[in-house]
Amino acid sequence: MRKEYPQLNSDHEIKEELTEMGIDVFEPQSTSEKHLARLFEDFSQFVLHSERDKCLEIMEDDLNNSGMSVGELQGGSQLYSIYRVSFPSDDDSYDGQADSNNAAIKLLNYYNQQHGLSSKTSLTMGKIKQYMLGMCDRRSRERNCRRYTSLGNVMFILQLGGPTHGQVRHIDNMVPNLQICLYMSSECPSTVVYAMDDGNGLPVTNATTLIDFWERQGKVVPEILKELLILHGDTKLKSKHTKYLGWSTINLQLLCFGKLYQPVAYQLGLQTVPGTTLLAGGNEIHAGPPTKHSRMFAFAIGVPDTNDQNADDRLHDDDIGKNDGEVQYSPVLFHIDFCCLIFSMLDHEYRASNKEDSVREAKRFLVEVLVELIRDYPMDEYLLQIDQEREDVRTWLDSILSRVAEELLVDGLVAEAVQSDRILYTPDLIKRPPKKMKKKPIQR
User: Fold this and answer.
1) CB burial of residue 307 (10 Å; 0-12, 13-18, 19+)
2) pTM of the model
3) What burial class does residue 359 get, using C-beta atoms within 10 Å of its C-beta: 0-12 exposed, 13-18 middle, 19+ buried?
4) Which residues are bridge partners to 34 per DSSP?
Protein backbone atom coordinates (compact mmCIF):
# COMPACT_ATOMS: atom_id res chain seq x y z
CA MET A 1 0.00 0.00 0.00
CA ARG A 2 1.29 3.44 -0.93
CA LYS A 3 1.69 6.36 1.40
CA GLU A 4 -1.57 8.01 2.41
CA TYR A 5 -2.09 11.59 3.54
CA PRO A 6 -4.60 13.20 5.94
CA GLN A 7 -8.25 13.02 4.87
CA LEU A 8 -11.40 15.00 5.62
CA ASN A 9 -14.12 13.51 7.81
CA SER A 10 -17.13 13.28 5.48
CA ASP A 11 -18.20 13.15 1.83
CA HIS A 12 -19.91 16.51 2.33
CA GLU A 13 -16.63 18.15 3.40
CA ILE A 14 -14.79 16.48 0.55
CA LYS A 15 -17.28 17.70 -2.07
CA GLU A 16 -17.20 21.22 -0.62
CA GLU A 17 -13.42 21.31 -0.81
CA LEU A 18 -13.42 19.92 -4.35
CA THR A 19 -15.96 22.54 -5.43
CA GLU A 20 -13.76 25.24 -3.91
CA MET A 21 -10.84 23.89 -5.95
CA GLY A 22 -12.86 24.14 -9.17
CA ILE A 23 -13.66 20.43 -9.32
CA ASP A 24 -17.22 19.16 -9.77
CA VAL A 25 -18.62 15.74 -8.89
CA PHE A 26 -22.00 15.20 -10.59
CA GLU A 27 -24.29 12.21 -10.15
CA PRO A 28 -26.94 11.27 -12.73
CA GLN A 29 -30.15 13.29 -12.28
CA SER A 30 -32.44 13.04 -15.30
CA THR A 31 -34.29 9.92 -16.39
CA SER A 32 -32.04 9.53 -19.43
CA GLU A 33 -28.88 9.98 -17.32
CA LYS A 34 -30.05 7.33 -14.85
CA HIS A 35 -30.83 4.96 -17.72
CA LEU A 36 -27.35 5.41 -19.16
CA ALA A 37 -25.83 4.98 -15.70
CA ARG A 38 -27.48 1.55 -15.50
CA LEU A 39 -26.01 0.70 -18.91
CA PHE A 40 -22.57 1.79 -17.70
CA GLU A 41 -22.90 -0.48 -14.68
CA ASP A 42 -24.09 -3.42 -16.81
CA PHE A 43 -21.25 -2.91 -19.27
CA SER A 44 -18.62 -2.71 -16.53
CA GLN A 45 -20.04 -5.85 -14.89
CA PHE A 46 -19.83 -7.58 -18.28
CA VAL A 47 -16.19 -6.54 -18.89
CA LEU A 48 -14.86 -6.95 -15.36
CA HIS A 49 -16.72 -10.07 -14.26
CA SER A 50 -19.17 -12.05 -16.38
CA GLU A 51 -17.05 -11.99 -19.59
CA ARG A 52 -13.75 -11.14 -17.95
CA ASP A 53 -11.60 -13.71 -19.76
CA LYS A 54 -12.87 -12.84 -23.24
CA CYS A 55 -12.52 -9.10 -22.62
CA LEU A 56 -9.01 -9.57 -21.24
CA GLU A 57 -8.18 -11.56 -24.37
CA ILE A 58 -9.36 -8.66 -26.56
CA MET A 59 -7.14 -6.20 -24.70
CA GLU A 60 -4.09 -8.45 -24.46
CA ASP A 61 -4.34 -9.29 -28.16
CA ASP A 62 -4.18 -5.58 -29.01
CA LEU A 63 -1.41 -4.93 -26.48
CA ASN A 64 0.79 -7.81 -27.66
CA ASN A 65 0.24 -7.31 -31.39
CA SER A 66 0.86 -3.57 -31.71
CA GLY A 67 -2.81 -2.74 -32.02
CA MET A 68 -2.09 0.78 -30.69
CA SER A 69 -5.34 1.15 -28.70
CA VAL A 70 -4.32 -0.60 -25.44
CA GLY A 71 -1.57 0.36 -23.00
CA GLU A 72 -0.77 -0.03 -19.32
CA LEU A 73 -0.76 2.74 -16.71
CA GLN A 74 1.36 3.07 -13.58
CA GLY A 75 -0.28 2.11 -10.31
CA GLY A 76 -1.02 -1.55 -10.97
CA SER A 77 0.58 -4.53 -9.30
CA GLN A 78 2.45 -7.62 -10.46
CA LEU A 79 -0.81 -9.53 -10.62
CA TYR A 80 -3.26 -6.84 -11.75
CA SER A 81 -2.51 -4.35 -14.49
CA ILE A 82 -4.34 -1.09 -15.10
CA TYR A 83 -5.29 -0.86 -18.77
CA ARG A 84 -6.04 2.18 -20.87
CA VAL A 85 -8.19 1.33 -23.89
CA SER A 86 -8.35 4.29 -26.27
CA PHE A 87 -11.20 5.04 -28.64
CA PRO A 88 -10.53 5.97 -32.27
CA SER A 89 -10.06 9.71 -32.56
CA ASP A 90 -10.66 10.33 -36.24
CA ASP A 91 -14.47 10.17 -36.29
CA ASP A 92 -16.44 11.85 -33.53
CA SER A 93 -19.73 10.51 -34.84
CA TYR A 94 -18.68 6.86 -34.78
CA ASP A 95 -21.34 4.92 -32.90
CA GLY A 96 -19.24 1.89 -32.01
CA GLN A 97 -21.45 -0.69 -33.74
CA ALA A 98 -19.56 -1.24 -36.98
CA ASP A 99 -16.65 -3.65 -37.32
CA SER A 100 -13.38 -2.20 -36.03
CA ASN A 101 -9.92 -3.31 -35.04
CA ASN A 102 -10.01 -0.89 -32.13
CA ALA A 103 -10.11 -2.72 -28.77
CA ALA A 104 -12.55 -0.27 -27.13
CA ILE A 105 -14.99 -0.70 -30.00
CA LYS A 106 -14.53 -4.48 -29.85
CA LEU A 107 -15.50 -4.45 -26.16
CA LEU A 108 -18.64 -2.43 -26.92
CA ASN A 109 -19.53 -4.63 -29.89
CA TYR A 110 -19.11 -7.80 -27.85
CA TYR A 111 -21.34 -6.41 -25.10
CA ASN A 112 -24.01 -5.32 -27.58
CA GLN A 113 -24.00 -8.70 -29.33
CA GLN A 114 -24.86 -10.33 -26.00
CA HIS A 115 -27.46 -7.74 -24.91
CA GLY A 116 -29.21 -6.82 -28.15
CA LEU A 117 -28.75 -3.94 -30.52
CA SER A 118 -31.85 -1.90 -29.74
CA SER A 119 -31.46 1.80 -29.01
CA LYS A 120 -32.35 1.19 -25.36
CA THR A 121 -30.11 -1.76 -24.57
CA SER A 122 -27.01 -1.02 -26.66
CA LEU A 123 -24.11 1.07 -25.44
CA THR A 124 -22.08 3.02 -27.98
CA MET A 125 -19.19 5.40 -28.06
CA GLY A 126 -21.63 8.11 -29.07
CA LYS A 127 -23.79 7.60 -25.96
CA ILE A 128 -20.76 7.71 -23.66
CA LYS A 129 -19.49 10.91 -25.25
CA GLN A 130 -22.88 12.59 -25.17
CA TYR A 131 -23.24 11.75 -21.47
CA MET A 132 -19.85 13.35 -20.77
CA LEU A 133 -20.71 16.47 -22.77
CA GLY A 134 -24.00 16.72 -20.88
CA MET A 135 -22.05 16.82 -17.62
CA CYS A 136 -19.79 19.50 -19.12
CA ASP A 137 -22.90 21.54 -19.92
CA ARG A 138 -24.09 21.18 -16.32
CA ARG A 139 -20.74 22.49 -15.10
CA SER A 140 -20.92 25.45 -17.50
CA ARG A 141 -24.42 26.35 -16.28
CA GLU A 142 -23.66 26.02 -12.58
CA ARG A 143 -20.34 27.88 -12.72
CA ASN A 144 -21.33 30.29 -15.49
CA CYS A 145 -18.09 29.42 -17.28
CA ARG A 146 -17.07 28.66 -20.85
CA ARG A 147 -18.65 25.69 -22.61
CA TYR A 148 -16.88 22.49 -23.61
CA THR A 149 -18.31 21.30 -26.90
CA SER A 150 -16.09 18.40 -27.98
CA LEU A 151 -13.99 15.63 -26.48
CA GLY A 152 -10.51 14.29 -27.04
CA ASN A 153 -8.35 11.40 -25.84
CA VAL A 154 -11.41 9.29 -24.95
CA MET A 155 -10.60 5.93 -23.34
CA PHE A 156 -11.68 3.28 -20.88
CA ILE A 157 -9.44 2.80 -17.85
CA LEU A 158 -9.92 -0.50 -16.04
CA GLN A 159 -8.38 -3.17 -13.90
CA LEU A 160 -9.57 -6.76 -13.73
CA GLY A 161 -9.17 -7.64 -10.07
CA GLY A 162 -7.21 -6.30 -7.14
CA PRO A 163 -5.65 -5.15 -4.96
CA THR A 164 -3.56 -2.49 -6.69
CA HIS A 165 -1.25 0.06 -5.10
CA GLY A 166 -2.61 3.20 -6.70
CA GLN A 167 -0.67 5.85 -8.54
CA VAL A 168 1.82 8.40 -7.30
CA ARG A 169 0.34 11.90 -7.31
CA HIS A 170 0.94 13.75 -10.55
CA ILE A 171 -0.24 16.55 -12.82
CA ASP A 172 -1.46 16.06 -16.39
CA ASN A 173 -0.82 18.99 -18.69
CA MET A 174 -4.47 19.89 -19.44
CA VAL A 175 -5.07 23.66 -19.44
CA PRO A 176 -7.29 25.00 -20.96
CA ASN A 177 -9.01 21.65 -21.42
CA LEU A 178 -11.16 19.86 -18.87
CA GLN A 179 -10.40 16.49 -17.30
CA ILE A 180 -13.44 14.19 -17.27
CA CYS A 181 -13.74 10.91 -15.35
CA LEU A 182 -17.01 9.00 -15.81
CA TYR A 183 -17.16 6.19 -13.24
CA MET A 184 -18.90 3.08 -14.56
CA SER A 185 -18.46 0.23 -12.10
CA SER A 186 -20.32 -0.09 -8.81
CA GLU A 187 -18.61 1.08 -5.61
CA CYS A 188 -15.89 2.64 -7.74
CA PRO A 189 -13.36 4.72 -5.79
CA SER A 190 -12.89 8.08 -7.45
CA THR A 191 -9.68 9.63 -8.58
CA VAL A 192 -7.79 10.97 -5.56
CA VAL A 193 -7.31 14.75 -5.68
CA TYR A 194 -4.72 16.44 -3.48
CA ALA A 195 -5.14 19.77 -1.71
CA MET A 196 -1.70 21.27 -1.35
CA ASP A 197 -0.18 23.19 1.56
CA ASP A 198 0.91 26.67 0.44
CA GLY A 199 2.73 27.21 3.74
CA ASN A 200 1.23 30.67 4.27
CA GLY A 201 2.63 31.83 0.96
CA LEU A 202 1.92 31.77 -2.75
CA PRO A 203 1.69 28.46 -4.63
CA VAL A 204 4.70 27.55 -6.76
CA THR A 205 3.97 28.91 -10.25
CA ASN A 206 7.30 30.42 -11.39
CA ALA A 207 10.97 30.71 -10.47
CA THR A 208 10.40 33.47 -7.91
CA THR A 209 7.69 31.59 -6.01
CA LEU A 210 9.78 28.39 -6.12
CA ILE A 211 12.71 30.17 -4.47
CA ASP A 212 10.33 31.73 -1.93
CA PHE A 213 8.81 28.31 -1.19
CA TRP A 214 12.20 26.73 -0.58
CA GLU A 215 13.23 29.57 1.73
CA ARG A 216 9.96 29.33 3.69
CA GLN A 217 10.85 25.69 4.25
CA GLY A 218 14.04 26.83 5.96
CA LYS A 219 16.33 25.92 3.07
CA VAL A 220 19.31 28.10 2.17
CA VAL A 221 19.03 28.46 -1.59
CA PRO A 222 22.46 29.07 -3.17
CA GLU A 223 22.78 32.58 -4.58
CA ILE A 224 24.03 31.35 -7.93
CA LEU A 225 20.92 29.19 -8.30
CA LYS A 226 18.60 32.07 -7.40
CA GLU A 227 20.42 34.29 -9.89
CA LEU A 228 20.10 31.72 -12.68
CA LEU A 229 16.40 30.99 -12.09
CA ILE A 230 15.35 34.63 -11.90
CA LEU A 231 17.51 35.69 -14.86
CA HIS A 232 16.46 32.82 -17.13
CA GLY A 233 12.91 32.06 -15.96
CA ASP A 234 11.53 33.22 -19.31
CA THR A 235 14.45 32.21 -21.55
CA LYS A 236 13.43 30.13 -24.56
CA LEU A 237 15.10 26.85 -23.72
CA LYS A 238 15.04 25.08 -27.06
CA SER A 239 17.23 27.71 -28.70
CA LYS A 240 20.00 27.71 -26.07
CA HIS A 241 19.70 24.53 -24.02
CA THR A 242 18.35 20.99 -24.26
CA LYS A 243 15.64 20.21 -26.81
CA TYR A 244 15.17 16.73 -25.35
CA LEU A 245 12.69 17.73 -22.65
CA GLY A 246 10.47 19.76 -24.97
CA TRP A 247 10.20 22.55 -22.38
CA SER A 248 9.45 26.07 -23.58
CA THR A 249 10.58 28.10 -20.55
CA ILE A 250 11.22 27.38 -16.88
CA ASN A 251 8.36 29.63 -15.78
CA LEU A 252 5.82 28.01 -18.11
CA GLN A 253 6.77 24.57 -16.79
CA LEU A 254 6.45 25.77 -13.20
CA LEU A 255 3.10 27.39 -13.98
CA CYS A 256 1.83 23.94 -14.94
CA PHE A 257 3.78 21.63 -12.63
CA GLY A 258 5.23 23.81 -9.85
CA LYS A 259 2.63 22.77 -7.26
CA LEU A 260 4.23 19.32 -7.23
CA TYR A 261 6.95 20.73 -4.95
CA GLN A 262 4.46 21.64 -2.25
CA PRO A 263 3.55 19.23 0.58
CA VAL A 264 0.12 17.60 0.65
CA ALA A 265 -2.39 19.12 3.08
CA TYR A 266 -4.89 16.28 2.56
CA GLN A 267 -6.17 13.88 -0.04
CA LEU A 268 -9.74 13.90 -1.34
CA GLY A 269 -11.50 10.81 -2.62
CA LEU A 270 -15.02 9.40 -2.76
CA GLN A 271 -16.84 6.13 -3.30
CA THR A 272 -18.99 6.68 -6.39
CA VAL A 273 -22.09 5.19 -7.98
CA PRO A 274 -22.22 4.39 -11.73
CA GLY A 275 -22.66 7.53 -13.81
CA THR A 276 -20.89 9.79 -11.32
CA THR A 277 -18.67 12.19 -13.24
CA LEU A 278 -15.69 14.14 -11.95
CA LEU A 279 -14.78 17.26 -13.91
CA ALA A 280 -11.55 19.06 -13.05
CA GLY A 281 -10.45 22.30 -14.63
CA GLY A 282 -6.80 23.23 -14.71
CA ASN A 283 -3.77 21.19 -13.75
CA GLU A 284 -4.84 19.65 -10.46
CA ILE A 285 -2.67 17.15 -8.61
CA HIS A 286 -4.35 13.76 -8.60
CA ALA A 287 -3.76 10.00 -8.72
CA GLY A 288 -5.54 6.76 -9.36
CA PRO A 289 -6.60 5.37 -5.96
CA PRO A 290 -5.38 2.19 -4.28
CA THR A 291 -8.06 -0.44 -4.81
CA LYS A 292 -9.17 -3.78 -3.47
CA HIS A 293 -11.34 -4.88 -6.39
CA SER A 294 -11.96 -4.44 -10.10
CA ARG A 295 -12.64 -0.89 -11.28
CA MET A 296 -13.68 0.76 -14.54
CA PHE A 297 -14.30 4.30 -15.77
CA ALA A 298 -14.19 6.33 -18.96
CA PHE A 299 -11.77 9.23 -19.33
CA ALA A 300 -11.70 12.15 -21.75
CA ILE A 301 -10.61 15.73 -22.09
CA GLY A 302 -13.28 18.35 -22.66
CA VAL A 303 -12.25 20.81 -25.37
CA PRO A 304 -13.61 24.36 -24.96
CA ASP A 305 -15.61 26.27 -27.52
CA THR A 306 -13.22 28.92 -28.88
CA ASN A 307 -16.14 31.26 -29.54
CA ASP A 308 -17.22 31.17 -25.89
CA GLN A 309 -14.47 32.68 -23.79
CA ASN A 310 -13.38 35.51 -21.54
CA ALA A 311 -10.11 37.37 -21.25
CA ASP A 312 -8.59 34.84 -18.84
CA ASP A 313 -9.43 31.98 -21.18
CA ARG A 314 -7.50 33.53 -24.08
CA LEU A 315 -4.20 33.05 -22.26
CA HIS A 316 -4.19 29.35 -23.14
CA ASP A 317 -6.11 29.34 -26.42
CA ASP A 318 -3.08 28.16 -28.40
CA ASP A 319 -3.22 24.95 -26.33
CA ILE A 320 -6.91 24.15 -26.96
CA GLY A 321 -7.17 20.49 -27.89
CA LYS A 322 -3.38 20.00 -27.63
CA ASN A 323 -2.89 19.54 -23.90
CA ASP A 324 -4.59 16.18 -23.68
CA GLY A 325 -2.98 14.94 -20.48
CA GLU A 326 -0.42 12.73 -22.20
CA VAL A 327 2.40 14.89 -20.77
CA GLN A 328 2.40 14.27 -17.04
CA TYR A 329 4.83 14.55 -14.16
CA SER A 330 5.08 13.25 -10.61
CA PRO A 331 7.20 15.26 -8.12
CA VAL A 332 10.25 13.01 -8.48
CA LEU A 333 10.23 12.78 -12.27
CA PHE A 334 9.59 16.51 -12.66
CA HIS A 335 12.52 17.39 -10.42
CA ILE A 336 14.80 14.93 -12.23
CA ASP A 337 14.12 16.77 -15.50
CA PHE A 338 14.42 20.12 -13.69
CA CYS A 339 17.85 19.06 -12.41
CA CYS A 340 18.91 17.94 -15.89
CA LEU A 341 17.99 21.33 -17.28
CA ILE A 342 19.54 23.42 -14.48
CA PHE A 343 22.76 21.38 -14.36
CA SER A 344 23.37 22.09 -18.04
CA MET A 345 22.44 25.76 -17.63
CA LEU A 346 24.84 26.16 -14.71
CA ASP A 347 27.61 24.61 -16.79
CA HIS A 348 26.80 26.86 -19.74
CA GLU A 349 26.39 30.14 -17.88
CA TYR A 350 29.36 29.87 -15.52
CA ARG A 351 31.90 27.78 -17.42
CA ALA A 352 34.14 30.79 -18.10
CA SER A 353 34.07 32.06 -14.50
CA ASN A 354 35.82 30.99 -11.33
CA LYS A 355 32.63 29.78 -9.68
CA GLU A 356 33.17 26.03 -9.71
CA ASP A 357 32.49 25.78 -5.97
CA SER A 358 29.26 27.82 -6.26
CA VAL A 359 28.06 25.70 -9.18
CA ARG A 360 28.80 22.53 -7.21
CA GLU A 361 26.90 23.96 -4.20
CA ALA A 362 23.85 24.68 -6.39
CA LYS A 363 23.92 21.18 -7.87
CA ARG A 364 24.19 19.61 -4.41
CA PHE A 365 21.19 21.65 -3.25
CA LEU A 366 19.10 20.39 -6.18
CA VAL A 367 20.12 16.76 -5.62
CA GLU A 368 19.26 16.99 -1.92
CA VAL A 369 15.78 18.30 -2.85
CA LEU A 370 15.44 15.30 -5.16
CA VAL A 371 16.35 12.89 -2.35
CA GLU A 372 13.69 14.52 -0.13
CA LEU A 373 11.05 13.97 -2.82
CA ILE A 374 12.11 10.34 -3.23
CA ARG A 375 11.94 9.72 0.51
CA ASP A 376 8.43 11.21 0.62
CA TYR A 377 7.14 8.70 -1.93
CA PRO A 378 9.67 5.97 -2.87
CA MET A 379 8.57 3.53 -5.55
CA ASP A 380 10.38 1.34 -8.06
CA GLU A 381 7.87 2.25 -10.80
CA TYR A 382 9.78 5.48 -11.38
CA LEU A 383 12.36 3.36 -13.19
CA LEU A 384 9.75 2.19 -15.69
CA GLN A 385 8.75 5.76 -16.48
CA ILE A 386 12.22 6.96 -17.45
CA ASP A 387 13.30 6.31 -21.04
CA GLN A 388 15.69 3.41 -21.56
CA GLU A 389 18.24 5.71 -23.18
CA ARG A 390 18.62 7.58 -19.87
CA GLU A 391 20.55 4.66 -18.44
CA ASP A 392 22.77 6.67 -16.09
CA VAL A 393 19.97 8.36 -14.14
CA ARG A 394 17.95 5.11 -14.04
CA THR A 395 20.90 3.21 -12.53
CA TRP A 396 21.54 5.98 -10.00
CA LEU A 397 17.85 6.25 -9.05
CA ASP A 398 17.67 2.47 -8.59
CA SER A 399 20.56 2.69 -6.13
CA ILE A 400 18.93 5.57 -4.25
CA LEU A 401 15.62 3.70 -3.98
CA SER A 402 17.39 0.60 -2.65
CA ARG A 403 19.22 2.55 0.05
CA VAL A 404 16.10 4.52 1.02
CA ALA A 405 14.18 1.24 1.36
CA GLU A 406 16.88 -0.09 3.68
CA GLU A 407 17.08 3.23 5.58
CA LEU A 408 20.75 3.65 4.65
CA LEU A 409 22.68 6.86 4.08
CA VAL A 410 22.82 8.20 0.53
CA ASP A 411 25.60 10.79 0.91
CA GLY A 412 27.89 8.94 -1.49
CA LEU A 413 25.22 8.77 -4.17
CA VAL A 414 24.44 12.47 -3.72
CA ALA A 415 28.11 13.31 -4.25
CA GLU A 416 28.24 11.03 -7.28
CA ALA A 417 25.32 12.83 -8.95
CA VAL A 418 26.82 16.25 -8.21
CA GLN A 419 30.17 15.33 -9.74
CA SER A 420 28.88 13.32 -12.69
CA ASP A 421 28.61 14.77 -16.19
CA ARG A 422 26.15 12.05 -17.18
CA ILE A 423 23.64 11.21 -14.41
CA LEU A 424 21.55 14.39 -14.31
CA TYR A 425 21.93 15.38 -17.93
CA THR A 426 19.64 14.69 -20.88
CA PRO A 427 20.87 12.23 -23.53
CA ASP A 428 21.45 14.99 -26.09
CA LEU A 429 23.90 16.74 -23.76
CA ILE A 430 25.79 13.81 -22.25
CA LYS A 431 29.44 13.98 -23.16
CA ARG A 432 30.14 10.93 -25.25
CA PRO A 433 33.67 9.54 -25.45
CA PRO A 434 35.27 10.67 -28.73
CA LYS A 435 35.45 8.13 -31.48
CA LYS A 436 38.91 6.81 -32.22
CA MET A 437 40.34 8.15 -35.45
CA LYS A 438 40.99 5.50 -38.04
CA LYS A 439 44.52 5.43 -39.33
CA LYS A 440 44.78 6.43 -42.94
CA PRO A 441 46.34 3.79 -45.16
CA ILE A 442 49.90 4.55 -46.15
CA GLN A 443 50.17 5.64 -49.77
CA ARG A 444 52.70 3.53 -51.65
Assistant:
1) exposed
2) 0.90
3) buried
4) none
